[in-house]
Write a structure and sequence with these properties.
The protein is an alpha+beta fold. The protein has one domain. The chain has five helices and nine strands, in the order βαββββαβαββαβα. Helix 3 runs antiparallel to helix 5.
Length: 187
């Protein structure tokens, strides 16, 4: 992983970060709580940019030829760190996929994420080489939450990311609609 300080010295491919939405799993590991990908067994370390890598499984023939390896996101691959619109992120929040992780999901959260470096537009948003959360919302009624950890405690644990973390008075199913109504300017 590359620290945020190290990335400040690298010139980006684009002049500014692209903001998008995504859903995360919250997992407990080594007595701390981390954001985890919903689709892959990848974890976001606090105060470190997540750097994409291609997790595509190579066939034995590709492996022998040394092929299949590339910088993420690859134009002919589906690799990279994803972010999209609020509605798309909400679908992942509601329909928690099994990512093959051995760590149980403590909660599901929704948030804004900054994408930078190599950024590729795709069907449902963007895929990027680097990302970091910029704001996290913790829905109130996630059935996967353990009995010992409430909404405010999850928000407190996620404060280690150094970004605003807000408990959200909405469940996972209605969180995108509630956020849209909160964030859209009133007429």
């Amino acid at each position: 992983m590359t620290s945020l300080a190290e990335l400040d010295a690298v010139a980006p491919d684009i002049p500014a970060a692209i903001e998008g939405w995504r859903a995360w799993r919250v997992v407990e590991t080594d007595d701390r709580y981390l954001l985890g990908s919903i689709v892959k067994a990848a974890y976001w370390e606090p105060l470190e940019a997540l750097e994409a890598e291609c997790l595509h499984r190579r066939s034995p023939l590709e492996w022998l030829r040394g092929g299949g390896r590339h910088e993420a996101p690859g134009p002919a691959c589906q690799c990279g760190i994803y972010a999209g619109g609020l509605r798309q992120a909400g679908e992942y929040l509601r329909d928690l996929w099994s990512c093959g992780s051995r760590r149980p999901t403590v909660a599901r959260v929704l948030g804004r994420v900054s994408l930078w470096g190599t950024v590729v537009e795709c069907e449902r948003g963007f895929r990027a080489s680097h990302a970091y959360p910029s704001r996290i919302y913790v829905p109130r009624d996630d059935q996967r939450r353990t009995e010992q950890l409430g909404l405010d405690e999850i928000a407190q644990h996620l404060a280690v990311y150094g970004v605003p973390v807000e408990p959200l008075d909405a469940g996972c199913a209605e969180a995108p609609a509630v956020l849209a109504s909160m964030l859209l300017p009133a007429d």
